[in-house]
Design goal:
The protein is about 15% helix and about 45% strand. It is mostly beta strands. It has a 13-stranded antiparallel beta sheet, covered by helices on one side. The protein is globular, with a radius of gyration of 19 Å.
Length: about 240
């Protein structure tokens, strides 16, 4: 019985260490508030296209995305307030509400999901974290979603940089344990008082998507800027 208690205690300590690491990671990626201009390159073996947009965010509750390019998508907007998300389509002057079931769907035809862009899910509240290993450069963390979590991944494995707490490598598995995609965050730069990855690359791993990839390049990033909650209102979608 004593041995079992010692094992449980050691496991609890390890889990607390993992929780502390992903808390720092979440804080590094979210920030208090930010505005970024980015270009997304979506590529397949047969074609490629670019999407340019601006994204404003405040904590984990608010996000606003404005598509600038290409011309056929110009003016499309996305708004996230707390647990709700809407999309505005200028061609038909219509605002639609995006249900929670669609948060893990493709964003603008890319390999990123709606959730990736507005960061609805939380590493802290939606996953149970376990520290698998520590190297000279990174912590290896395994995330298993809680039963009530609004995510579809069966498991996520992250390599989190030991200095910047940026997840430089993330492997996403389905519920059957098959590797679905890999996300890499690189080109870490200091923006104000924070360090942030300026390039995000997703490479799907399923055979049906062989040769596909989506890369986000952040052109300009401003962190901890003054943003009032009222900025993230439905009026922003169709002012």
């Amino acid at each position: 019985m004593l041995l079992g208690a010692e094992i449980n205690q050691a496991s609890s300590v390890t889990d607390n260490v993992a929780l502390n690491i992903i808390t720092k990671t979440e804080n590094a990626l979210r920030g208090d508030s930010s505005k970024m201009d980015l270009e997304m390159m979506i590529a397949t073996p047969k074609w490629s296209r670019a999407v340019q947009c601006s994204i404003w965010s405040k904590g984990s509750d608010f996000s606003f995305i404005h598509i600038r390019y290409p011309k056929r998508n110009k003016g499309v907007k996305f708004l996230k307030r707390y647990n709700e998300m809407w999309q505005y389509i200028p061609k038909v002057e219509r605002t639609i509400k995006i249900p929670p079931s669609m948060m893990m769907q493709s964003w603008m035809g890319s390999d990123f999901t709606n959730d990736d862009l507005v960061r609805e899910s939380s590493l802290i509240t939606d996953y149970h974290a376990t520290l698998l290993a520590t190297t000279d450069d990174y912590f290896k963390i395994q995330l298993i979603p809680l039963e009530t979590a609004p995510v579809t991944w069966g498991k996520v494995v992250m390599h989190i940089h030991k200095i910047y707490y940026i997840p430089t490598y993330q492997a996403f598995y389905d519920e059957l344990g098959e590797l679905v995609r890999i996300m890499e965050m690189t080109d870490i730069k200091k923006i104000g008082k924070k360090w942030y990855p300026m390039t995000w690359l997703i490479t799907p791993q399923l055979e049906a998507k062989k040769g596909h990839y989506t890369r986000i390049t952040i052109i300009e990033l401003k962190m901890d800027i003054p943003l009032d909650d009222t900025f993230f209102s439905l009026r922003q979608l169709n002012p």
